[in-house]
Amino acid sequence: ADKLKYPSQVAASESAFEMKGVETLEVTADAVQPVTFDLSGSEGLTLLKTLNSTGNTTYNQVTSEADIEVNNVTSGANVTVSYQDSVVAGTANDVTLTLANNSNVTPVGTITVGRTSAANAGVETISAVVSGAAATVTTLDSNISTLNVAGDKNLTITTALNTTVDTVAAGGFTGALNINLTGNVAAAGEGALSIT
Beta strands 194-195 and 24-29: pairing type? Predict the structure, then answer.
């Protein structure tokens, strides 16, 4: 698969370009500087990878249901993915979120997954895979109904999950899972929250 690597140590915003035949966009936002991509001119992306970053990374107007990888993102840096509305128009959109080599000491900030017209809505399922090292994410902001968790390293999500989550499936997960479901129990009603 073809990959475009984009490292930056300054604040950057890229738009008004076309990109075809590239499956992976790998962005490094270093020196606590943000990087934003408008991907409305892209076709065929299958993976949005944020690597070795201390700055916020934003992917707007994503034209395909690309998966997400957050790899060695620290210092509270945020990762935001916004798909075009038509891409996540159905009711069974499942995005894989790989969390690799993320520090528990200076954790990932907020991971936001949604659509252009609603920053945290449009995706029904996030399938998180934890690898390399235990991962701490401050906030997972997405109005999903199902969170799947797999992998062999510990995962902590500090802030309570959005109250839309009514299913957490981690049957094959061999790490320790630390999440806050208080609001989800109240929203789903007694006996309606599924945890496996």
Answer: unpaired
